[in-house]
Amino acid sequence: MPRTDRTETNGTTNGTDSTRGTKPAPATPAPPVTGEELRSVLAELIGVSPAEIEDDANLIRLGLGSLEMMRLVTKWRRAGLGVDFGELTSTPTFAAWNDRITQELTEKTG
Question: How far apart (Å, rounded) are the C-alpha atoms in residues 13 and 21?
Fold first, then answer.
């Protein structure tokens, strides 16, 4: 008769080590600390070189989509920044985003 339980011979149950409990959560990525880090992150998402993102460039017109913006907001919130999707879409320039993130980081570090 075949085994009906899900315990495998390596001591795990359903892919989770039964001696340690659940799988550890993935680490939260840090938000960009410098303007150049932010510029690099945005350039990668848009598919351009960082040099092509000028301070007053409209990131939406450059090709940054709403889904990418939502992912950034989610990532930055998990990292402790109080950024808001509506705020970013109302001022979608590199300079505005950089100022906002710098303000948040300054408030957090004192």
Answer: 10
Please, are residues 50 and 32 in contact by the beta-carbon 8 Å criterion? no
- Burial of 36 (C-beta count, 10 Å sphere; 0-12/13-18/19+): exposed
CATH class label, 35-108:
mainly alpha
In the numeric block, which tokens belong to residue 110? 């004192």
C-alpha to C-alpha distance for 44 and 67, rounded to whole angstroms: 14
- Domain segments of the chain as ranges: 35-108
Partnered with residue 58 across adjacent β-strands are 93
Q: Which residues of the chain have pLDDT under 50?
A: 7-9, 12-13, 16-17
Query: 41-74 in b/e burial notation, b at 16+ Cβ within 10 A?
Result: bbbebbeeebeebeeebebeebebeeeebeebbe
Q: What's the pTM value of the predicted model, to 2 decimals?
A: 0.70
